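Weekly modeling sync, notes
Attendees: AB, CL, MP (scribe)

Item 1: holo prediction request
CL wants a bound-state model with oxaloacetate ion before deciding which constructs to order. AB pointed out that an apo prediction alone won't tell us much about the pocket. Agreed to run with the ligand included and paste results into these notes for async review.

Input as submitted:
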Amino acid sequence: MTDFRQQALDYHAKPVPGKICIELTKPADSAKDLALAYSPGVAEPVREIAADPDAAYLYTGKGNSVAVISNGTAILGLGDLGPLASKPVMEGKALLFKRFAGLDAVDIQVRHRTTNEFIDTVANIADTFGGINLEDIKAPECFEIEQQLIKRCNVPVFHDDQHGTAIVTAAGMLNALEIQGKQLGQVTIVCMGAGAAAVACMELLVKCGAQRERIYMLDRQGVIHTRRDELPAHKELFANNTDKRTLDDVMSGADVFVGVSGPDVLPAETLALMAPNPVVFACSNPDPEIKPELAHQVRDDLIMATGRSDYPNQVNNVLCFPFIFRGALDVRARVINDEMKIAAVDAIRQISKEPVPDEVLRASDIGSLTFGKQYIIPKPMDPRLCQRVAKAVAQAALDSGASQFEQLPPHYQ
Ligand SMILES: O=C([O-])CC(=O)C(=O)O
Ligand SMILES: [Mg+2]
């Protein structure tokens, strides 16, 4: 374990500190090159953009760029550790944007006093980028922040921990339930955690057919029910009219557990209470709500997923955010709407049901992968994700009127 810690630190420190850098896309060797790149040549695109802001997509990197913006108030499942401490995660997101979707992401950490100050900061720089990916911002502020920024920005704004996590969770859940022979509309769901990811996951599952009355959400005080006082608006949405109060109460006979809370909060004895053939998504990062080894010891009929890459079934927003932005930016969508999110769910689901390319098996160091309990969702390095998810998202943007384009760009046709 210490060895892994050192490896992780060395990975980040050597040979140069950090995980990303900037590269030039144009020659900059001769005096002529510099005259074009900088003064006087640069004045020409300046005039074009001043006359028509859309010209920025033609003459600058705007259309291929995403800002990854955090204030460090909910870094993974680690908590509120401040803006600067979130930088490795935000650089990590930039690494993933580039590696999986060819997008140039810039990580930005914002220090602020009030929520409005954060909103103003992001709104004031948004035009620089093709899209804004909000990351690791705690609830309940994240809801207000995202809603205000969607209103104020001309480019798509997407809170990854809400919607990226929700899209991947919904895709994995629908596939897992299909394998277990259950219907989303009939299952009882326990959601441990009531933060950004929890609320968004449950909302998207409801849009996909889950029944709100069969969802039990828990925060640190236990089950969120209708007789609790002074619930914030986002918890009110999932206040259940029930006498059940504890995790054990709601886990008895439950079909699904979704953990988006913190490490080791699901005891083995509680897992044992679930209905036959349960689905357990323990998605807290980096440490899940229950260790897969322990879960499998307790029962052999479950489908288990975590947010980590070192276990089967990684339910992590990396399967979504690079591709949803790729699709959205490719058709210059103004927003990322529900139609685009559902299109991403369907595309991710479908890929895992098809034969897996050899390069994915090699990269995962696995001999074979077939749709089943150990493989409910594609691997992040599957090249089909970029082609298929981005295309589905782009098409949904066109069909739903979120894009100003009339047809898909040629590389999708
Ligand atoms: O970074 C990850 O692995 C997933 C994520 O967004 C989070 O846990 O906040
Ligand atoms: Mg996150």
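Recorded for review: The pocket of magnesium ion (ligand 2) is lined by residues 135-136, 160-161 (CB under 6 Å).
Action items: CL to compare against the apo run; MP to circulate these notes.
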